Each structure stands twice: as C-alpha cells, then as structure tokens.
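Methods: example folding runs. The two proteins below were folded one after another, and each record is reproduced exactly as written to the output file, sequence line first and structure-token line second.
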Amino acid sequence: MPSYDDIPTKTLIDIRRAWIAEAAPVLLMKRLDKLASKIWTTALEYAHNLVETERAELEHAWLEAVGLADQLAAELDTARATVDRQAAQLAADAETIGQLREALRTQEQALAAALYRANRTETALLALQARVEQIANLLTDKIAQQDDKTQADERNHQDRKIGRFNNRRYGNPP
C-alpha cells in the first residue's frame, strides 16, 4: 500500500478540491446546525448571564458610589457650616480685638494725660512745699523777731515798772 508521502502533491491538491466541491450530507448539516444552534444559545445565555452579573455589580457599585457621594456631600456641608461659623467667630474676635485695642489706646492716652497731670501736680506740690518752707522760715524769723521785740518790750516795761517803783520808793516823782 502506498504511503501518504508517496502520493504526488498535485494529486493531493486535486483530491482536496474534490472534497471541498462536494456538498456535505444533509443529515450532517442538520446535526451541525443543531449543534451550532445549541452552542450559539449557550453562548448567548453565558453572555446574557455575564452581562446581568456585570450589570448587577455595576448597579451595586453605582449605588455604593451614590451613597458615598451623598455622605461626602453631607460631610462637605457640615465642614462648610463649620468653616462659616469659624469665619464668623474669627470676624467677631477680630472686631473685639480692634475694640480692645482702641480701648487700650484710649486708656494709654488717659494714663499718659494722668501721668502728665500727676507730674505737673508733683512739680507744683514741690514748689508749694518750697514756698511753704520759705514762708515757715520767714514766719519763724518774724516770730523770733517778735519774741525778741516782745521780750525787749517786756524788759522795757519791767524796767519802767522797776524805775517807777524805785522812783516812788526813793522819791523821784514820775
């Protein structure tokens, strides 16, 4: 029996062409159609199941994403409200600080004016104390002079009294 390798290439090509040109039997074609139909149906069911699974997964992921977006929106609203409150508090604090600074400036000016008046008052007081000492010294001198005069007048008066007494006693009439 000749081997396959012994058959000339041209003859093999002719045999192949003859097979290809020959129509497949109807029974085989029906069975292949049924098989192809089952394979196609199975493929469609598999694809449909795959699409449904992916759709369910996507829907679940979408719902989860929507939930997270809602949660983030709520957190963002809360954060914005907090920022707004803090900004309002900051503005109020800044205004209070401005008022306190103005009050401090006013108090510093009042203190400076009070220190100026106290300094002038102290200077005037020192001048008055010096004047009082001067007047006290003058009065002390005047009193001393007056005392001296009074003592001198007293002595003169005593001397006159004694002189009168002596005159009366010893006979000199006044």
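Second run, written to the same file directly after the first:
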Amino acid sequence: MNATSTSTIVVPRTKTRPGLIASAKTFRLVCDDQGLHVIHLGRAMGPKVKSRDPIADKLAGVMISKMERKLEESLAEAEREIEYLPLAELVARKHSFTVPLTERGAVEVRSCAGADLVLVIRAPQKKAKLLVHSHYRDELEAIERRFGG
C-alpha cells in the first residue's frame, strides 16, 4: 500500500458487527490528505455466545477455534497482499470506500462497553459503525479532528 505521506494515519484492523443478513467484516483504516480510506480485508468473527450446556459449549469452542485460526490466516494474507498495491486500487474493491475530508463531521469516535471504541461514519455515500480496540484511541481522535470533530 503506497501511503507514504508523513500525515498518514493507519489503524490496521477494525471490524463491523454482524447483522441479520450481512456477516461481520474486517477493515483497515488509512487516513491521508484526501480522506479516510476504509479498506476491506475480509470476514470477521461475530461475538461469542455461551450455551447453557457445557458439552455443547466445549464442542462449539473447538469448532470456533478452527474457524478463528483459518480466518486469521486469511486476514494475514490479505494484509500482506495490500502492502504492495496502490491505495486507489484497494479502495475500488468491493466493500471498500473513501470518505473525503470535505465531508465535515462525517466521522465520530464513541466509547462502548468493553475494550472497544466505535468509529461512526455518516457520509452521503456510506454509513458504518466500526469497532476499534481502545489501543488506537489517539489515532481515531486524530482522524476525527481532521473531519472537524
């Protein structure tokens, strides 16, 4: 990914929650002088749900662990792949988009339960809520400031 500007902010992984129809997705955020580029990396795991039956819980845990490993391998491969592609090509992919910096107030950081923050995007072309680990609070707040927040 050719994002070499000194003012580029990168958040390596964010994700959306699963919906009734759509699966959870993983994204990389790149904010530069043009705007916020939301690059789709692949699927994400939804929240874990506990069963009341300990045996069913154990079996589900084994299956979910395998799925998580496979998903992690897929995301790592996607991350390696995008390092060498131009940003314009990445944003043109399905589920990826750009929010131009001219969309004042289109990006907002909110706190939520647990260790996550929510990056709320409200732009004319796309609306999204991305979960981001609180470790990236400074980066998210810098992105929000660029959009006049």
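Comment on the second run: The chain has a mean pLDDT of 87.
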